[in-house]
Amino acid sequence: MKIVSYLRVSTAKQGRSGLGLDAQRSAIDAFVTQRRCTELKTFKEVESGRRADRPQLSSALHLARVTGATLLIAKLDRLSRNAAFLLTLRDSGVKFIAADMPDANELTVGIMALVAQQERDAISRRTREALQAAKVRGQLLGNPNGADALRRAGKGNVAALRAVKDRADDHARNLAPVLDDLRRGGVTSLGGIAAALTDRGMLTPRGGRWHKASVRNLLARLGT
Predict the structure, then answer these.
(1) Parallel, antiparallel, or unpaired for β 70-73 and 38-46?
(2) At what angle do helices 55-67 and 157-184 cross, to 10 degrees?
(3) Where are the chain's structural domains?
């Protein structure tokens, strides 16, 4: 089994000291040895579990997706306690295993997501109540010049579209070796490539299934 491993700690101090990372590395090494896995790459990240926008995890998921590998983590709670993120992971098409819970499945993650969502809802409710109380007291909330600040920063649809295009271009470049391998194997038609990419568990840049049109767009991005 091909695996991509992911290690995470919450603080920079832990990252510098190795505290936590060493234990995770040991758990992953033991799993790799026991299951006779082939480890393609290891990603390490120092980031709070509350955040879903973790670049190293995104890179690990992407590599696992385009190579058909399985994401391996030491402990399931190393990923996140965020419901939306857990469900996104569950539905991403990337296979994953936690060394401490190798038999965890979609149901397990779904239950964890429900519990996490309850926690988030409780926090959100308390925040809304606090803001409402501040408003009743006459306290001004928010930044009245927020929209102007965003415009001065040059943010908006243009930047968002550029980010989407850049992600799609990166996705295409990462898939280039896979396309070369398919072609060497005699798979050259749009439908054949779409079926082969789908069979390997690889998703489009938007996380969907491959079709002739999406393969055509992929080839156009690569200029082939």
Answers:
(1) unpaired
(2) 30
(3) 2-110, 147-222
The CATH architecture annotation of domain 2-110 reads 3-Layer(aba) Sandwich (3.40)
CA distances from 138 to 97, 128, 145, 221 (A): 51, 15, 19, 54
pLDDT at 107: 67
What single-letter amino acid sits at 206?
R
Segment 113-156, tens digit of pLDDT = 666 566 556 666 767 777 777 667 766 555 555 555 555 555 55
Residues 34, 90, 49: CA angle, nearest 5 degrees: 85
Distance of CA 22 to the CA centre of its chain: 23
For 78, the token pair is 């190393």
The partner residues of 98 in beta bridges, in order of sequence, read 73, 101
Can you count the helices (H) and strands (E) in the chain? Answer: 9, 4
Amino acid 38: pLDDT: 94
Per the structure block, which two tokens stand in for 4? 């991509």
Distance CA 200, CA 177 (A): 14
How would you list the strands of the sheet with 96-98, edge to edge? 38-46, 2-9, 70-73, 96-98
Instruction: Give buried/exposed letters for 60-89 (b at 16+ CB in 10 A, else e).
Output: bbbbbbbbebbbbbbebebbbbbbebbbeb
pLDDT band at 12 (very low <50, low <70, confident <90, very high): very low
CA–CA dist 84, 64 (Å, integer): 20
| Phi, psi angles (nearest 5°) of residue 137 | -75, -5
Separation CA 15–CA 32 (nearest Å): 23
Distance between CA atoms of 109 and 131, rounded to whole angstroms? Answer: 32
